[in-house]
Design a protein that fits this description.
Layout: H1 2-21, E1 23-30, E2 37-38, H2 40-47, E3 61-65, H3 73-80, H4 84-93, E4 98-101, H5 104-113, E5 117-122, E6 130-132, E7 134-135, E8 148-149
Parallel strand pairs: 2-7, 3-4, 3-5
Antiparallel strand pairs: 1-5, 1-6, 1-8
């Protein structure tokens, strides 16, 4: 029985870092944005600067954390399909359309005060100042949400 307890404790201890590092990201927009849901394909077009305006004609401004940060690895893989270095060059080439913020609070502040802005934050940083956008009809807490993962 003692060996089983030790095994369970070891398994739990090795699994915890993976649980702690799992990311729950949320796509957020300003509260005046009428868009509530985007398809994965539309989102990729927005983040790759192929789509530059919302359906109502407002320009889209993307607000992200530093592409080299661990938080943004999932975003780079799923939306940009780029390495951090490639993303950095892409951001430099699209200044004005893409803004880099130094914290989730800064992303929220910029998105909430800029009509047409969209950003990615940790779900646990969410405030009432921004709206969460569904991706393919799913919210961040739902299985299959595009920005859910490690």
């Amino acid at each position: 029985m003692g060996h089983w307890r030790l095994l369970v404790v070891l398994l739990w201890a090795t699994a915890m870092p993976n649980l702690v590092h799992a990311r729950q990201l949320a796509l957020v927009a300003d509260t005046g944005n009428a868009t509530a849901n985007l398809t994965s394909a539309d989102l990729v077009k927005i983040f790759n600067a192929h789509t530059r305006t919302w359906p109502d004609g407002r320009p889209i401004t993307i607000v992200l954390r530093d592409p080299s940060s661990a938080d943004m690895q999932l975003v780079l893989r799923k939306l940009f399909n780029m390495t951090p270095d490639q993303a950095q060059a892409f951001i430099q080439a699209h200044k004005g359309a893409i803004v880099v913020a130094d914290s989730d609070d800064a992303v929220i502040h910029f998105v909430s005060s800029t009509r047409g802005a969209v950003g990615v934050i940790d779900l646990y940083s969410l405030t009432k100042d921004v709206n969460v956008l569904k991706i393919d009809g799913k919210l961040p807490v739902e299985q299959g949400y595009l920005l859910r993962g490690n």
